[in-house]
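Loading example: each entry is read as two labelled lines plus one structure line.
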Amino acid sequence: MKIATWNVNSLKVRLPQVLQWLQDNPVDMLCLQETKLTDDKFPHAEINAAGYQVVFSGQKTYNGVAILSRHAITDVVKNNPLFEDEQQRIIAATIEGIRIICAYIPNGQAPDSDKFQYKLKWLDALHQWLAQEQSQHAKLALLGDYNIAPEDRDVHDPLAWVGQNLVSPEERAAFAQLQQMGFSDAFRLFDQPEKLFSWWDYRRMGFRLNRGMRIDHILLSPALTAQCTACVIDKTPRKWEQPSDHTPVIATLQ
DNA sequence: ATGGCGGCACAATGCCGA
């Protein structure tokens, strides 16, 4: 069983790349973020034709999430029931006995901004909801764009990022709280090369210079952690023409 | 010090992302 996550930065633009990537990487399940499509414009027929069922929750211009699966999808929930939110950032579903939560965690813009306060409240509500979900689903996976680099080794140049969002103590504490709740960062269960990232700025040759951040994560409950045999970041699509600024992360479960 | 790229929209400049 392979489960994956990818912030595609517009599914309208990236659909051909998603279909190509799935052909090359026929994972069981793929979570997408930043689809940037209202539900009436979602390309479900093309995705079905590729052999995947799909559920989605979108809006115009911003945000938007989806779960693609080769297996039956049940018990779909859109957004955190404990958090009133106009922004479409969460979709959850059960697939093959695994509770999957696909999340696009807010960016936070800057630590002194209103958007940062929204991010912290959003994360606090996420913790509360996950505590409930944990009590009902031993096999629980949280995949998505967290917009948090958990440690300095997840940042190309930690000194250059001091004082900014994505690396602040508050955001890292929120990530650490997920770990204290029992979730494991699948990527860190294994030996990994240094300076491996999941996002690179479009500007200043970020990808070519490998100036990136690891902000897309797969977190696993203890039961799933015990089943996890690999977690990799696939840089391939970042090298394609007109790429997303993020690239997929894939976990293998026994 | 700033913005640099890319996607989007009541679209030709401004907002937002990370």
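The two ends of chain A are 6 Å apart (CA to CA).
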